[in-house]
Design brief:
Elements (H helix, E strand, L loop, with lengths): L1 H8 L3 E2 H8 L3 H13 L3 E6 L9 E5 L5 E7 L3 E8 L9 E4 L7 H16 L8 E6 L3 E2 L4 E2 L10 H9 L2 E6 H12 L8 E6 L3 E7 L2 E3 L30 H4 L1 H13 L5 H6 L8 H9 L3 H25 L3 E5 L6 H15 L2 H4 L3 E4 L6 H17 L5
Parallel strand pairs: 4-7, 7-10, 11-14, 14-15
Antiparallel strand pairs: 1-3, 2-3, 4-5, 5-6, 8-9, 11-12, 12-13
Helix pairs in contact: 1-14, 2-3, 6-14, 8-11, 10-11, 11-12
Length: 387
């Protein structure tokens, strides 16, 4: 119903405001609002400012009228949460080990759903839909992820929907993070912004002319796989020299392990010389934040490589803002100065002077928030929410 969609987009609103947007009479609007109040979908949220007469009654969605299960995946992990239609979490954020090629993903998601149902008190019958943000070449119209290696599992939305008997929508994780930033974060009200999830790969989401850009079939934003090094390292995509191979988390670990093998002076060498396979990205970052010179230099090297990739985006898209998120963006005091300095070498100054580069404040929550917005918009536009 259009009133639900309008109140989801902005709450509270008066009957007069809703009537104008719906282009229907005020009595008809009030009648529909009263029906929704009786169904406990809409609540009266006080009164607004008067323009000379009686103060207008303000209406808002009842947050508990609709719920969804929001899921976000990366290369090795997944997290899930139950959200209400005010975009508020109604449960803990439950993390579990999985990936897009995990044949047990649906089983693990079922276990996570059971855990959230128990901890939140929200029954599965109160959940209206499922949304999943995941890496890969995704066509959200068909619910297919072409990056899943097993062709039988690529129609992942259909398979999840069949198992849970709930409408299921999938989208690229980078676009969901971008949507979260666009609605709730630093990209709010921006027109041309790039959001990069800097982790094992480089997930890129784009806001162009105030809209999330998906491309002709949902495959835009493959920033990781721009070839920048001729005959470079082999990338997970099967090609050589992709940007990911010189900027991703695996490259950071490879550099650190080589330094440890060379017995370079570092806290990392002291801690991991006899157990290099236990080295993690978190350990390198933690060491840098404690002032370890080797770790700082490795992270700065990654930052310079990232600037090379960013310079391409800046000169192609002329953005007003670039937001960096993900685990590799954490040591910002070492990254931002390095990136800015390198960009002055790589970019035309007139273009570079227009762009701000910031670290996301939403961090790991942007993808879940964006997935929630995506699903509720689909529910309220297609009227598939079951009350």
């Amino acid at each position: 119903m259009q009133i639900i969609r309008l109140l989801y987009k902005k709450s509270p609103q008066s009957a007069v405001q809703l009537s104008k947007k719906l282009a229907i009479s005020l009595p008809s609007t009030r009648s529909m609002l009263n029906e929704l109040i009786d169904e406990e979908v809409v609540l009266i949220k006080g009164t607004g400012e008067s323009s000379g007469g009686r103060k207008p009654v303000l209406y808002s969605l009842n947050g508990e009228a609709f719920h969804i299960l929001a899921v976000e995946m990366d290369q090795y992990n997944a997290q899930a949460v139950i959200l209400n239609c005010l975009n508020e979490p109604c449960s803990e954020i439950f993390q579990f080990d999985s990936n897009i090629d995990d044949p047990e993903f649906i089983s693990k998601l079922d276990q996570a759903f059971n855990r959230l149902e128990t901890s939140s008190g929200i029954r599965k019958t109160q959940v209206n839909a499922i949304g999943i943000g995941m890496p890969g070449l995704i066509d959200p119209r068909t619910g297919v992820n072409q990056t899943i290696k097993n062709p039988a599992r690529r129609s992942i939305a259909q398979q999840v929907e069949k198992h849970f008997k709930l409408s299921t929508y999938i989208e690229n994780d980078a676009r969901m993070q971008t949507l979260g930033e666009f609605v709730f974060g630093q990209a709010k009200n921006s027109q041309n912004t790039l959001v990069i999830n800097w982790s094992w790969g480089l997930g890129l989401g784009m806001i162009i002319n105030g809209e999330i850009f998906a491309g002709s079939n949902g495959c835009s934003g493959e920033f990781s796989h721009i070839r920048v090094v001729e005959d470079g390292e082999l990338c997970e995509c099967g090609k050589r020299g992709c940007l990911q191979t010189i900027t991703g988390a695996q490259h950071l670990l490879d550099l650190a392990k080589q330094a440890i093998a060379n017995k370079e002076i570092s806290q990392l060498t002291n801690d991991f010389q006899h157990r290099p396979d236990e080295l993690t990205v978190k350990a390198v970052i933690a060491s840098a934040l404690k002032g370890d010179e080797l770790s700082i230099n490795l992270i700065s090297q990654l930052g310079k490589n990232m600037a090379w990739g960013l310079s391409i985006l800046i000169q192609l898209y002329n953005p007003e803002l670039i937001l960096l998120s993900g685990p590799l963006s954490a040591p910002k005091q070492y990254l931002l100065p390095t990136i800015q300095q390198a960009l002055h070498q790589y970019c035309l100054e007139n273009i570079l002077s227009n762009v701000k580069i910031e670290i996301s404040a939403l961090a790991e929550h942007s993808g879940l928030k964006g997935t929630g917005v995506m699903v509720f918009k689909k529910l309220f536009s297609t009227q598939q929410a079951n009350r």
